[in-house]
Amino acid sequence: MNDWSFGDLADPAQCQQAIDVTGHDVETLLTQLRMMLRIRLAERCLAEGRRDGLIGGPVHLGVGQEAVAVGIAAELRKTDRVFGAHRSHSHVLSMGASLHRLFAEILGKDTGLSRGMGGSMHLWDQPNGFYGSVPIVSGTVPLAVGAALAAKLQGSGDVGVAYLGDGAVEEGVVHESLNLARMLKAPAIFVVENNLFASHMHISLRQPKESTARFAAANDIPYEIVDGNDVVKVRLAAARLIEHARAGHGPGFLEAVTYRWYGHVDWREDIDVGVNRSAEDVSAWRKRDPVARLVAGLQHMGLIDADQLKAMEANIAEEVADAWRQAQADAYPPLSALTSRVFANTGALQ
Amino acid sequence: MSVTRYNYGTAMLSAFEYLLESYPEVFVIGQGLWSPWYVGNSMTDLDKKFGAHRVIDTPVSESACTGAAVGAALAGMKPIVVHPRMDFMLYAMDAVVNQAAKWSHMVGGQAGPGLTIRTIINRGGEQGAQHSQALHAWFAHVPGLRVVMPATVADARDLLIASVLCPDPVIFIDDRWLYDLEDDLPPVIERSLASERPQCLRTGVDLTIVASGYSTRLAVQAAEQLELQGVFAEVIDLRVLNPFSPQSIVDSVSKTGRLLVVDGGWSPCGIASEVIASVVERIPSAALKKPPIRITLPFSPAPTSRVLEKAYYPNEAMVVSQALNLMDKAC
């Protein structure tokens, strides 16, 4: 890895095996499987809603990347401060957000997570530890450092988490943020979901090396590079970095190598617009499915059978359908919301 | 009531001391805070008194530091960011304009970053185009920011405190050319920034002069000169440029019929334009005895050479001269 190339980690023909769950708590694994399925079915529902014209704005889907947020959230608490970006449905759901309120937000309804003012790209669920997501690439990275610095000043032992992509690392403020977090010893966890693409551009056309963890090394920040489609490995790496940060030793950097099945935005696969994104690649990466590999690991150990899995999927599908129906029936924000929420204390949900 | 003598710089220093003493969630972050070079006498020894963990001198990273203050504010702190020169703050525009200003609206008013960004207009001295800008009009254009420009010693202290206690993002712009102003101040009273309005510093019946920051000082000095010539100017100091509250200006111009606006920024889409437009759309045209006049910078970046620099910035004589023009009097 010292040449900062991923090798097998970025090769879809590798890392397809069942996840090794030996020695891990069964209830936790099943909870993680349930959450990953929930995220996947929710995003499939959104893909269809967008395709069918029911959703007016863009949705950036992360199907195929579910293990990253779910693995990290397993190590977080509600008082931590998580920030996301344009592809953050998994981030907010993994912290415990209501499916109904997520859907309502994306449909622009007053009951939405951001009261209908944000849509898919501006999500907020601070009571569950999700401080916000925005679509300006890298925009929330310094915010997470500041929320982490606040935790340090408050002596709370909480961490700030910045989810960013490999494209965001090309923004200057990320490098300022890494240095600042290191120098202030802020308990900030930088999570790079490296899915090898920024919009349509493959990383090989944007950066001289694949691994963005080289910037953690340059800033003297401890880092981990993991298979982002292995929820157990993600969680273990997150646990090490988060424990280090909570103990007052400063920031950590986790790079999770993964792949998105859909294109950059909306429901298409974007085979034709991608550079280095062929149908063969997408189909190979689908075999490295983080959900199927966890199921295979659980089945291998006899921890779930086909009927149980089927029942779990049916339950979640019903939950998704109910939430979608309810969100569609909800009311839009009042016209007064156009100007009444610009300054503080004017829009608290009663 | 007991009063204390301050200048504009020590008035801000006393505001910082008051805030750091009274509010554990206040901290200050920016470049030059541990050095006397950058912020004059406005922050002397704060790090020694309150600790370097609460008065943080930072790496050369305007963007990350400002973004970090936004995030800390969302997490319950009351941060003050200091940009010793407004020009360098342009690196932080995403944090200011995309994040801080829009946060409350984007999340339905359920959260908002209550941070103060203190930025200093620091011109003159042949520093030139990148060390001299006064960009208050930019920030006044953006919904979600409160923009404050103190022109008096009292406002330097009390509006800084009000800004930091305000739950919204505030751009607090002070001016190095005001640091020698002196005044006696009563003890601190905490004010609500949302209730602060333009203030009449001098009453008059012949014309209304509107200004902010250092331009207000010019306006007051010019009004004193004009009075010697029998012209009585009403001087209104804007104080809070965003959200802009024009009513007292409209009332004044309704009385005087003449409006002169002095601004240390450029004319196009500037504060002077906004003041004039706000007045013109609110009073009958017959109420104006003469078309309004604005005094601003030439529409060019700041020069360095002293001869050019002297011609570049508005001065008291220009204000007097344009006021007399409005009065149809020769200089």
Can you describe what's shown?
The complex is a heterodimer of chains A (350) and B (331). Chain A has 350 residues and is of the alpha/beta class. Chain A has helices at residues 26-51, 66-73, 89-94, 99-106, 141-154, 172-184, 214-218, 231-249, 279-286, 290-300, 306-329, 337-340; strands at residues 81-84, 130-133, 160-165, 188-194, 197-198, 201-202, 223-227, 252-257. Chain B is of the alpha/beta class and 331 residues long. Chain B has 11 helices and 14 strands. In chain B, the strands form 3 sheets. In chain B, strands 3-2-4-5-7-6-12 form a 7-stranded mixed sheet, sandwiched between helices. At the A-B interface, helix 5 and helix 6 of A face helix 3 and helix 4 of B.
Topology:
The complex is a heterodimer of chains A (350) and B (331).
Chain A: H1 26-51, H2 66-73, E1 81-84, H3 89-94, H4 99-106, E2 130-133, H5 141-154, E3 160-165, H6 172-184, E4 188-194, E5 197-198, E6 201-202, H7 214-218, E7 223-227, H8 231-249, E8 252-257, H9 279-286, H10 290-300, H11 306-329, H12 337-340
Parallel strand pairs in A: 1-2, 1-3, 3-4, 4-8, 7-8
Antiparallel strand pairs in A: 5-6
Helix pairs in contact in A: 1-2, 1-10, 1-11, 2-8, 4-11, 5-6
Chain B: E1 4-7, H1 8-22, E2 26-30, H2 46-50, E3 55-57, H3 62-74, E4 78-83, H4 93-106, E5 116-121, H5 136-140, E6 146-148, H6 153-165, E7 170-175, E8 182-185, E9 199-202, E10 207-211, H7 214-228, E11 233-237, E12 240-242, H8 247-256, E13 259-262, H9 271-280, E14 293-295, H10 306-312, H11 316-326
Parallel strand pairs in B: 2-3, 2-4, 4-5, 5-7, 6-7, 10-11, 10-13, 13-14
Antiparallel strand pairs in B: 1-8, 6-12, 9-11
Helix pairs in contact in B: 1-6, 3-4, 7-11, 8-9
